[in-house]
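Query structure, 150 tokens:
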């Protein structure tokens, strides 16, 4: 009976932790840059000329993306080389120490290291709201409403 009570208490205590992982949130790929790849541990501590072939193969650079949600801008680097198109809408969620990105164009979720996070300024948020607002086109001829040419 004591074991059952202990398991029940542990289960109840772990429920809030499951909610901390976060739900999916929409983000837009705002910027893509090519940056030098970070060491994966194979050439760590060695002078640059003595790096292993695996590290030397990554000298071409790695892709870094800036994703923007409604309030936050994330700069991420995927652990695997993945191509996300600028302007594409992706779904993200924050895991313990990384960001998980999913998109219809990707076969499965991609884990990414978060290099920086910034709150968007009020001006940037307003600019985004303006872009998302539908555009209403009205045409006038001699001061009177008229049908718009197509």
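Result returned for the query:
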């Amino acid at each position: 009976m004591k074991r059952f009570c202990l398991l029940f208490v542990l289960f109840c205590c772990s429920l809030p932790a499951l909610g901390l992982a976060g739900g999916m949130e929409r983000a837009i790929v705002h910027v893509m840059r090519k940056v030098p790849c970070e060491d994966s541990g194979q050439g760590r501590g060695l002078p640059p000329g003595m790096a292993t072939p695996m590290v030397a193969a990554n000298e071409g650079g790695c892709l870094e993306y800036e994703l923007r949600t409604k309030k936050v801008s994330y700069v991420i680097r995927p652990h695997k080389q993945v191509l996300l198109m600028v302007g594409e809408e992706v779904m993200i969620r924050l895991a313990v120490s990384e960001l998980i990105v999913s998109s219809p164009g990707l076969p499965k979720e991609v884990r990414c290291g978060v290099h920086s996070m910034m709150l968007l300024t009020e001006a940037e948020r307003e600019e985004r709201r303006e872009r998302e607002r539908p555009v209403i086109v009205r045409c006038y001829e001699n001061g009177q409403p008229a049908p718009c040419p197509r």
